[in-house]
Structure formats: C-alpha cells, structure tokens
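Quick one, T. Sequence first:
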Amino acid sequence: MLHSAAHSILLRAWRAGVLVAIAWLIHQQHDWLSAQRDATLTPDRIRDFFPEADSLGPRDPQSGIQKVLNTYGDTLGLVTQTSPVSDNIIGYSGPTNSLIALDPQARVIGIRILHSDDTSDHLATVLKNRPFFNTFKNLKLGDLQPPEKIDLVSGATLTSDAIAQGILKRLGGNAPSLRFPEPLTLAEIQKLKPDAAQLQPLEKHPDIFQVLDAQQNILAQVTRTAPQSDAIVGYKGPSDTLIVLDPTGTKIESFHLRKSFDNAEYVAYATGDKFFAKTFTGMTLDQLATLDFNAAGIAGATGATQTSWAMSEGMKRRAAALIEPPPSASLQIQLPTLKPADYGLLAVIAFSVLMTFTSLRGKRWARALHQIALIGYAGLYSGAMISQGLLTGWSRHGVPWQSAPVLLLLTALALALPLFTRRQFYCHHYCPHGALQQWLSKRLKNKNHLRIPAPLNRLLETIPLLLLTFILVIVMLGLNIDINKLEAFDAWLVTVAGWGILLTAIAGLIFSLFTPMAYCRYGCPTGALLKFVRYAGASDHFGKKDAVALALLLLAALLHWQLAWT
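Structure tokens:
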C-alpha cells in the first residue's frame, strides 16, 4: 500500500515536473532571443510621422524618449517605445511593444505597433481598428489623467487592453523636462553640501537622488520641480527649482532656483527674499502637497508675486507627484479584475465541473443545456479555449492573472483535475470544439462511419504528438510561424479568424461526421498534452507517453543550450 502511494506521488510529480521544466526552458529561451532582438529605432521607421526625420537623439534612460531631428539638427518631435514598461502586460498570449510619436510639445500624434508576441489574428483585428489608436491622440507625455473612456476592440479585447495599458503606462510615467533638460549634477549639489561625493538615484523614484559623502553616509535627498513645473508660468515663463530634503526624504530643508524663463528682474526679487526662501523649511512633503497657500497665509516674494507663486506651485505639484501614485497606476491592475463577460464564463466553468463530478451528466436535459452553454457562450461568444498558442505564450511571458483570471482558472483546472482526480475535465466536459463534434454526430446520425485500419489509426494518432514537437521547435528557435494556425480553436472567433483556419476547422468537423471525435483523436496537440498529465490510477505507470515527454524535455534543453552557447 505504501509502495502504491509512493508510486502515485512520484508519477504525478514527474508529469507535473516535466511540464514545469519545459515551460521554464521556453521562458529562458524567449528571454535569450528577446535580448538578441535589436530594439534600436531608425529614421526609416518613423517617417510616416516625421517625413523630414534624419536622425534620432540618445534615448533617455528613464522615459525612453528620443528626439527626432532633421538634417539641421532641429527637433521635429519625440518618440518613445512602451517596452520595457509594457513587457509584463500580457494580452491574450503575449505583450506588445508600441511606438508613440509625439509633437515637440510632447502630445501624441500617432501610435504604431513595433513588435507583438500576441496572437496574430487578434493583433490584426486591432490594427484594422483605427478609432482605437486615435483615442490616444493629443494625450500628453507625463499627463497623469488617462482618457475618460477607451473602447476596446471587439473580438480582441485582451490584446487591445494590453496595448492600451502599455501606452498609458508609458505616457503616465515621468516625462523628461523639455524646458529644463539639464539634469542635477554633483557639482551643483556640492555648492550646498560640500561633503557630497556621490548622487545615487532611489530605486522607487529614480528622479530623487540620495546625496552621499565619501563614507556613504546619507547627507540629504534632492530632486527638482521639472517636469511638473514646465507648464506653470509665473509672470513670463516657467521655473525649475531644486528641492533639498532631509536624509529620510520626508522634510524640506531648503529650495533653490535652478533656472527660469521668467522676467530676470522678478527672478532676482524671488531669489533675494530671505523670508520667502524659508517659507517651506521643515514642512513635510505631505503638508506641502495639500497646502492651501491662501489659508496658510503664505505670501510670495515682495515685488515678484507671480514668479514666487509659480515656484511654490511647482514645488507643491512635485510633492504631490512624489507621495501619490499617478492615477494611471490604477491601470496596472493590482487585483484580478472581472469583466461582465467573465461572470458568464465562470458559470459555464462551474456547470462543467458539476458535469465532471456529479450524476448530473447522466440527465438528458442537463447534457443538452450544457452543450448549448459550451457551444453558444464559451465558444461562439467568449472564445475562451486553451490552445498551444496560449500555453506557449504564457510560458514565454508569464501568466495574465490580473487581466484574464477566468481563463487562467480554466487552464489551472484543465491541468490539475486530470492529474489529481483522474477526471478529464477539459476535453470531456468543457471544450466547445469537442462539444460541437458530439452534437453534430448525434444530430446528423451518420451511420456510414469510416473503418480506419489499425496501422493507419496508429499512424494518425501520432499527428498530435508530431504537432507538439513541431510547436516546441518553433518556440525554442523563435521561428516566425503562427502557432495558433496549427489548431482549430481560433475559428470560433469568427470575426477574427482568417479563411485558412476557418476552412481547417470546418474540414475537421466534416471528418468527425464519419469518424467520431476525429479532430480530438487525430489533430489536437492540446488534447495530447492533457492526456499526458492525466493519472489513470493504480494501474498507471511510466509508459510510452512519459518516454515521449522525456524526449521533448531533452529536445527543449538541447535547443536552449545549443543556441545559448553558440
């Protein structure tokens, strides 16, 4: 009995371990291949937006911004990419890197997809929808307020949602100051802190610097009001102010004007007023961020009210930006968010679980209602199915537990239930494509079933395994082949699917009229994967499917190390 229990645990652990190991190798291989991809923009790729573009300036490390220059070195506009900030935003099966083109005032003039690891059919649907991309026009870099409403693309909701989140995340980040491009320097700080030996950016706020002495003691923290103050005009123009904070970064020690486009006379009044210079000393960032200047009785510098007000307002806005996460951060969903359609899908999944584990599956009315739910809602309406494109995409980029939690739950059940309960939940009680084959065979009652000879049947049954091998090679070598076209499931998204995949799906359904469940038996690599993880009970042992899985694991390892070491 003890031996039997140990055998059961070891066999299940082996099968789960093989899947995890292959997924890990796919992920590592994708990281390696991505690192080889040249993400450098060239003028040719942006001339649709800037016809006179001749060169690009250096890329700002914080914002990713590059200036677009003409032959005379004049700035035509700006460009940035959503990667790497969008790399962890998964659509249906992968992230997307978008180019954002901006005018010289940092307002969006256009969006272009540079690269996407998402499903090609979903991406094509998004690319055809120009109103979706026009939503982002005239948004400003560094503007913390996202559009009131973004209409996601029907049939490609997850893909368009990921693209939108990536764009807004990049736009909502700290934009570089276009008015005051000069960064803080050590020499500048040493005028105030003579013992300063190093400026070290904070990890959470790279535009705040710790001032360190030679012994690495923290003397202070410093930041500046630009770019928050770029649009705050005093009498004649904006100003950039240096803010010196205490070593903890919570209280203001002093502030000092760095540069101003305001009237020189008024600037002199503001910087020479000793009372104004001490206005905010000792105040915390929280106090400054919510300060009502009038209620607090704070007056500007004598003779330079507008200029000193602009400096004060710039510091107030900078303090608010430091203590509060930007509103766009809400787009980076912290907890799984359910869309209205997800509740219906949850109900279908729950129904399928009941059909798997209860006697309900023996009742004709329940089976009929279940098939309607699967074909109508899970298939035609939702298109929520597991595929190799989905699984390999998640292996490469991570699972979208925030944006697609119900699809993730479905996948977890599909893999875990056969492994731990011996019940084939997904293939037998959820898959809409399988349900449609069953429904057609029962309704049409075709008695002219093909009798396939045993040798041919064995040969046909190897096709799913060959497809799994082919898919693994595609993924590990980074070949430009759409994996989703090797399965029939995208055909359920009728508005998205191409004619090729629709004809393939229809041909498979016709074949199933003459050979029951033909696609499941002879054409489905995902079904083959789920059969591998299924534990059949005490009689189960390390067999042919485990040997095939070991061979696939060794193949993945060989392809990974062969590329990584060449």
